[in-house]
Every structure is written in C-alpha cells, then in structure tokens.
Amino acid sequence: MLSASTFIVFIVINLRLCWIRPVYTCVCGPSYSAYKEELFQNVLTQVAEQFSRAFKINELKTEVTNRLAMLEKRVELEGMKVVEIEKCRNDIKNLREEMASRNNSNFLEDNKKLTPRRDVPSYPKYMLSAQTVDALKKPAFDVWLWEANEMLSCLEHMYHDLGLVKDFNINPITLKRWLLCIHDNYKNNPFHNFRHCFCVTQMMYSMICLCSLQEKFTQVDILILMTAAVCHDLDHPGFNNTYQINARTELAVRYNDISPLENHHCAVAFQIFSQPDCNIFSNFDPEAFKQIRQGTITLILATDMARHGEILDSFKQKVDNFDYTDEEHVTCLKMVLIKCCDISNEVRPMEVAEPWVDCLLEEYFMQSDREKAEGLPVAPFMDREKVTKPTAQIGFIKFVLIPMFETVMKLFPQIEEAMVQPLRESRDRYEELKQIDDAMNEVQKKKSENLTMGGKKK
Ligand SMILES: *[C@@H]1O[C@H](CO)[C@@H](O)[C@H](O)[C@H]1NC(C)=O
Ligand SMILES: *[C@@H]1O[C@H](CO)[C@@H](O)[C@H](O)[C@H]1NC(C)=O
Ligand SMILES: *[C@@H]1O[C@H](CO)[C@@H](O)[C@H](O)[C@H]1NC(C)=O
Ligand SMILES: [Zn+2]
Fold first, then answer.
1. 6-24 confidence digits (pLDDT tens)
2. Which of 234, 238, 278, 320 has a CA 20 to 30 Å removed from the CA of 246?
C-alpha cells in the first residue's frame, strides 16, 4: 500500500500539474480521500506558498521530473497490488507525455502568469527622488541603475505625470497590479526582457516630453503610445519571426506566419486586460475601449521590422505636408514613434547603449545555435563565428536608425541634439572600432602567411 509520504508526494505532483493546467483532474484513488485532512491542508498551504514564489517553469519541470522519478521508484519498492501499480504506471506515463508534449511550448506559463493577483500588489513603493523624476524625461537616462521594483515605480510615475490616471479615471491600485502583471509576463531573455520594455517606454515618455506631443496629440493618443510601448514585446520567446516560421512553431502556425511574435505580444496584452483586476481601462465606455484597443494593436503590430520599409515610406510621403487633423497621418506618426523607441538604444549615451549590443548578440547566438542544431538557415549577422559588435551596429545605425530619426526630425527639429547627434557619434565610434578590428585582422593574416611561407621554405 502507499505510504503516507508517497501519498503526499503524489498529491503535490497532481496539485502542481493542476496548477499548470487547471483542467487536469487529480487521479488519487478514493480510498485515500479521507486521509488526514489536516495534513492535507498543511500541504496545500505550503504548496500554494511555493507556487506564488515559483517563477521559472524550468525549475518546476525539473522538480516535477525528479518527483516523478522518486514516485516511480517507490511504486516498485512498496510492492503494491498489480492493479494499483498498473494504474499508477498509467498515470505516470500520462504525466510524462503531458510534459513531453509541452516541452517546446511557449505557452506553458500562460495559465500561471495570466492569473490575476487578488492581493494589492506589494512592490515596495520606491520614492523617486526629484533628480530621478527629472532624469526620467530624457533619452540620456541610465536604464541600468534600477531593479524591477524601481522600474515599475518609474512606469507608474509616467502614467500619473502625463495626467493619464486623472484624465481617464484609472484606478491607481489597478495600475500597480497591471504593471506587475506586465512585468511577470516578460521572459528573462538576454535582450527581449522587462528592462527592454522599460527602455522603450521611457524613450516614448522622453519623446512625448521633448517634442511636446501633448500639445499635438489627444490624451487618448498619448495613452495608446505609452500602453503600446509597455506591452509591445510581452512574452517574447527570444527567437525571432523568421525562426518561428522556419521552425514551424506553435506561434507561426497560430498566426499563419504573419507577424507571429507581434500578434502574440498583442494577444497577451489583451488577455491581461481581460482580467478585471488588471484592466486599467475598466472605467472606459465600450467605444473608448474599442478605440484604445485598435490603436494599441496597430502600434504593436507596427514593431515588426519586416514592415520597416513600408511604414517609413508611408511616413515620408506625409511628413512634408503633415496634418495633425488627418487621422491617417497621426496613426502613421504614432507607428513611426513606437518604431523609433523600440530600436532607440543607440540614441542613449555610449555607456548605456553598448551593453545592449552584447545582450542582443547573446540572444542572436542562442537563436543561431538552435538553428544550426535544427538544420535551419542561419543569418551571418547572428552567427557567433562571423559577427562582431562594430559590424553588427554600423549598418543598422547608418541605414536604419539615422534615416528614420532624420525623417522624424523634419517634424520635430528638437530631437537633433538629443537623439540624432548621439546616433552620429555612435556610428563614428563603431566605424573607428571596425578599422582597429580590420587592422588587427590584417596583421594576424600576415603573421599566419609568414608562418606558412616559413614552413614551405624549410
Ligand atoms: C525537453 O527539453 C529539455 C531542455 O530544454 C531537454 O533536455 C529534454 O530532453 C526535452 N525532453 C523531451 C521529451 O523532448
Ligand atoms: C531573424 O532571424 C533570421 C535568421 O533565422 C534572419 O535572417 C533575420 O534577418 C532575422 N530578423 C530580424 C528582424 O532580425
Ligand atoms: C613577415 O616576415 C617578414 C620577413 O620575413 C618580416 O619583415 C615581417 O615583419 C613579417 N610580418 C609579420 C606580420 O610578422
Ligand atoms: Zn522591442
């Protein structure tokens, strides 16, 4: 017969899986249902506590795997009746299959993270100093100095400072809970993580301030710009659209290869809003919500770099006769603004910008390694054998960033000093670094040539 400890282990496993996927039905036999209620309650409480702490699904997977192994061993050792052993074996097999089938899925965490927090969010209220509040408005803000709680406080501050909380009657507690939920739904990728979300939103806030966008746009537009920035990379898996499509991932299949990632970021954003506890728009009438939803979707979908040329061309056609009363013009400008913010790291001071290049390359290398392992096409700029920081950045700054920011500069000349000039400096610096790299490679080549020749002479 099952011992008490085996039983508890079994319950724990079942509870954990129940929690991962609430529809899972527990398989414990009826003869145990009356077993020590109090003990069971204790286990429940402990498990519940553990759940709220467990963030990494991989930890959870390892733990479940270990416990399964333990259980398997016990089943053998305890010498249960044949029927019960068979039943347990089947359960174990089902659990294993369940886990295996979900192994490569990015959606494992959905049920966990989307579950709203009933409690009032507890991130400590960081008092932002007057200095921080002031620096937050500028592209030069050092985004590396802050931990998650502080970034959450900064984001909260922006919504208050822009008058969004007041004008739209947003519940301040809901705002906190929403931001926490946003934080929980960014993965710990090297690049596409919560800090990137913070950077993009902080740059949007800087541009709103620097370009006095509140004088040109309605508050609805400002709310859309900020909210789209916050949500724009939610649950990014760390592998880009091309990978998703080539590897035929669940995301690519779900979205028919059409901007799978951006569609997913957006869907996760609105899954979060569908939780009343996290819905900062709960006071909006249906018409207003519809407008915010449409605007946010348009902006998040515009962050797919595959559409870069199309969006920038469309903006170029409007910029010389820009009309703030023309909805199409305003939408196009908003799309270009979120695009600018999304790829704005090189606008920041060199010490702030440079670590992001390492983060991006790390994420690229993870992808190219996986592509090699899976026999998929690999882009040279993602290949750890081929790319260097200068080569990665020069083309991007010269042919993507500067042309886009210079176009926006036609409308907002004030960004030249604060945003375009740093881009030009960064381009020049990386070109110098590349010359040094090239010279060193040349010497290296000559040396090895000399060696070869020396070898031949002998
Ligand atoms: C699941 O993924 C892990 C690594 O993420 C791997 O070690 C393991 O072999 C995989 N299991 C299956 C059944 O594919
Ligand atoms: C995504 O990865 C592929 C390589 O699989 C690469 O060719 C493509 O340019 C990448 N896209 C972006 C936007 O980085
Ligand atoms: C190559 O060898 C020549 C003479 O054999 C020498 O003058 C030159 O400095 C060497 N170059 C390098 C890079 O070692
Ligand atoms: Zn992004």
1. 444 444 444 433 333 333 3
2. 234
